[in-house]
């Protein structure tokens, strides 16, 4: 807390303060000349008291401001320290500005998205997927929060958590005892039976989620174009600034940076494109293929991007050594520079 000095110990020398600013008026500001009458003496006292009161109010205001700022900055540490008891029952909530607590930090996302696209408008466009998030526990807690929009249908019985050993292998299973959705904050609250240990890594898996796709450019959405008089459809992402949560459960704030491994499952007649270069393509079943992309650099969720379309993708290198993707279709072409972070 900022300590406010006692007003009685303060001294504001109005005469010498003014002398230092306006030395040419030294004679007129001498104290004997100021106190020429009882009236001028009273005015002087009132002015001094006014300056002292303003100083106290200003200091008090600054004290409250810094006290609030400190409380906000150390919100998680303070609440955890005060609530840890014999049962390690820690209760943390998103702050008033809807920021997630800094108890857990995402380290790595392994994301798989299956995009259901076709040329038949009468059929529904939708996507489904799964994600495993490697998280780092910063402060011991028995509950935490993960962003997910209310359009995302998450299978609650497919949420799992495990403790990782030094080789990133599962060491033990963490029991989840309760999951509920907080609509105002667009996040899931996950309650655990035992507290997570600080400075330890865990895997958090959302085994199944699903959402319809429409023409609203939030998250993963549909666009269309004409080719030989026939409408063709494509799916693309717009994650900025808080729309990654429309696509998959995540820590959807810029501060929470992580590496991303993206796998796009698509129909054999379509192609995909993402931030990083394509690592491999594998035939899954029927006419479904999976495109696996290289792991990204550490970045915020809103920077993640991918497209599923019937455009062809030609990889080239420009004269400065940068990767360039040329995406083209029958009657036109669009050039996109690969996102280099």
UniProtKB/TrEMBL annotation:
<keyword id="KW-0862">Zinc</keyword>
<keyword id="KW-0812">Transmembrane</keyword>
<dbReference type="GO" id="GO:0043171">
    <property type="term" value="P:peptide catabolic process"/>
</dbReference>
<keyword id="KW-0378">Hydrolase</keyword>
<keyword id="KW-0472">Membrane</keyword>
<dbReference type="InterPro" id="IPR001930">
    <property type="entry name" value="Peptidase_M1"/>
</dbReference>
<protein>
    <submittedName>
        <fullName>Uncharacterized protein</fullName>
    </submittedName>
</protein>
<keyword id="KW-0325">Glycoprotein</keyword>
<keyword id="KW-1133">Transmembrane helix</keyword>
<keyword id="KW-0735">Signal-anchor</keyword>
<keyword id="KW-0645">Protease</keyword>
<dbReference type="InterPro" id="IPR045357">
    <property type="entry name" value="Aminopeptidase_N-like_N"/>
</dbReference>
<dbReference type="GO" id="GO:0005615">
    <property type="term" value="C:extracellular space"/>
</dbReference>
<dbReference type="Pfam" id="PF17900">
    <property type="entry name" value="Peptidase_M1_N"/>
</dbReference>
<dbReference type="GO" id="GO:0006508">
    <property type="term" value="P:proteolysis"/>
</dbReference>
<dbReference type="GO" id="GO:0005737">
    <property type="term" value="C:cytoplasm"/>
</dbReference>
<dbReference type="GO" id="GO:0070006">
    <property type="term" value="F:metalloaminopeptidase activity"/>
</dbReference>
<dbReference type="InterPro" id="IPR042097">
    <property type="entry name" value="Aminopeptidase_N-like_N_sf"/>
</dbReference>
<dbReference type="GO" id="GO:0008270">
    <property type="term" value="F:zinc ion binding"/>
</dbReference>
<dbReference type="InterPro" id="IPR050344">
    <property type="entry name" value="Peptidase_M1_aminopeptidases"/>
</dbReference>
<keyword id="KW-0479">Metal-binding</keyword>
<dbReference type="GO" id="GO:0042277">
    <property type="term" value="F:peptide binding"/>
</dbReference>
<dbReference type="GO" id="GO:0016020">
    <property type="term" value="C:membrane"/>
</dbReference>
């Amino acid at each position: 807390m900022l300590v406010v000095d006692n007003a009685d110990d303060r001294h504001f020398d109005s005469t010498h303060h003014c002398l230092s600013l306006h030395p040419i008026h030294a004679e007129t500001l001498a104290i004997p000349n100021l106190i020429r009458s009882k009236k001028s003496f009273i005015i002087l006292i009132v002015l001094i008291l006014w300056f002292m009161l303003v100083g106290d109010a200003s200091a008090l205001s600054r004290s409250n401001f810094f006290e609030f700022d400190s409380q906000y900055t150390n919100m998680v540490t303070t609440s955890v320290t005060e609530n840890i008891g014999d049962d390690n029952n820690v209760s943390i909530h998103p702050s008033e500005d809807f920021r997630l607590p800094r108890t857990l930090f995402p380290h790595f996302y392994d994301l798989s998205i299956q995009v259901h696209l076709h040329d038949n408008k009468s059929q529904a466009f939708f996507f489904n997927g799964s994600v495993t998030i490697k998280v780092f526990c910063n402060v011991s807690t028995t509950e935490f929060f993960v962003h997910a929009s209310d359009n995302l249908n998450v299978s609650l019985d497919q949420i799992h958590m495990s403790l990782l050993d030094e080789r990133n292998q599962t060491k033990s299973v963490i029991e989840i005892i309760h999951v509920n959705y907080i609509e105002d904050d667009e996040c899931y609250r996950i309650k655990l039976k035992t507290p997570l240990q600080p400075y330890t890594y865990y895997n958090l898996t959302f085994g199944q989620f699903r959402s319809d796709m429409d023409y609203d450019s939030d998250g993963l959405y549909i666009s269309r174009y004409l080719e030989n008089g026939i409408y063709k459809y494509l799916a693309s992402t717009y994650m900025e600034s808080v729309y990654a949560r429309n696509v998959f459960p995540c820590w959807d704030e810029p501060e929470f940076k992580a590496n991303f491994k993206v796998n796009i499952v698509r129909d054999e007649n379509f192609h995909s494109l993402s931030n990083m270069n394509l690592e491999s393509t594998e035939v899954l079943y029927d006419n479904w293929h999976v495109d696996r992309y290289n792991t990204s650099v550490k970045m915020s969720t809103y920077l993640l991007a991918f497209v599923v379309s019937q455009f062809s993708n030609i990889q080239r290198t420009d004269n400065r050594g940068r990767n360039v993707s040329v995406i083209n279709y029958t009657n036109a072409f669009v050039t996109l520079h690969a996102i280099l972070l």
